[in-house]
Amino acid sequence: MAVTFNQIQDFLSKKRIAFIGISRDEKNYTRNLFREMTSRGYDVVPVNPNATEIEGLKCYGRLSQVSPGPEAALIFTTSLPLESLMDECLASGIKNVWVYNPRDKGRAVKPVEDFSRDNGINFISGYCPFMFLKDSAFVHRLHGFFLRLSGSYPARERS
Predict the structure, then answer these.
(1) What is the pTM for the complete model shown?
(2) Are strands 53-54 and 57-58 parallel, antiparallel or unpaired?
(3) Are 35 and 29 in contact (CB under 8 A)?
(4) Which of 22, 58, 65, 152 is 20 to 30 A from 44, alpha carbon to alpha carbon?
């Protein structure tokens, strides 16, 4: 299932986003993205069972503990099966899910794509969220440029 630019824009239009599997390491990619999205006005919610606080905010052990519930979820962890995380997202009323972990390119997502389609979930996998944030740093825009050159950049849906 090909991800479209429209799906990504729909995801990024949500303002309260859970970061599932955010790292405790302040130099980690997930923390950099967390800070960037916070600076852009997103209400980001850290979710990691091994932390009590991230970037000065309460960190939740499970998505189901977050109140009020988020509109979307970014999943970074590989320590839990993706299927169980998708079940938790659905149970929490989240219909926008983005899975990203550059070190986990081999994770099978076909069953999760099918689950998402069957349950009306906007599912995005593989793309780096930084590439789609307006006026992002040069390195992220360059990444997007190379995806365009290779034909791998998400296409816009025509109305």
Answers:
(1) 0.88
(2) antiparallel
(3) no
(4) 152
Asked whether 46 and 19 are in contact (CB, 8 A), the reply is yes
Query: What token pair was written down for 63?
Result: 């998505």
Following DSSP, what letter does each residue of 118-137 receive, concatenated?
A: HTT-EEEES--GGGGSTT--
Tokens of 131: 């590439």
State the Cα–Cα distance between residues 129 and 12, nearest whole angstrom. 9
In sequence order, what DSSP letters do the residues of 60-90 get, joined into one string?
BSSGGG-SSPPSEEEE--SSS-HHHHHHHHH
Dihedral pair phi/psi, residue 145, rounded to 5°: -60, -45
The predicted-structure confidence for 62-112, as pLDDT tens digits, reads as follows 999 999 999 999 998 776 778 889 999 999 999 999 998 655 555 557 788
Question: Which of 3.40.50.720, 3.90.550.10, 2.40.50.100, 3.40.225.10 is the CATH number of 5-129?
Answer: 3.40.50.720
CA 33 to chain centre: 10
Question: What string of H, E and C letters represents the secondary structure of 83-116?
Answer: HHHHHHHHHCCCCEEEECCCCCCCCCCHHHHHHH
